[in-house]
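User: quick one, fold this
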Amino acid sequence: MNNHSFSDGEWKLMNLLWDESPLTISKMVNALKTDTGWGKATINIMLNRLADKGAVRIETGGRSKLFYPITGRSDAVRSEAKSTLSRIKTGSFALLVSTMTEESDLSEAEIEELVAILRKGREEK
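Assistant:
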């Protein structure tokens, strides 16, 4: 598993690439312009940073560069979760989970999935 730490902006780009790839910078600008207002230069800088981290592959050869995710979404989320847990060191898993669920609009299906995960964790002990 890659141990990447992404900025908020890098997460936006990675989520785009995980949802649909390959993408060109132009497609990313169009997808993010309402939310961020970022232009090609800003996105290009962040994509190069992601490539330096080993999270994105840049393919040249055609009229436009194509960008592909190298790091998988689940690996990135696991890495971010581990990093967050080690930083906040709450000492209380229940506090962490209750805060996360209170701050999120969880659907009934997501609540059931969380319950199933907790049950599985109990069974594996």
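User: anything notable?
Assistant: Helices lie at 8-19, 25-32, 40-52, 73-88, 93-103, 108-123.
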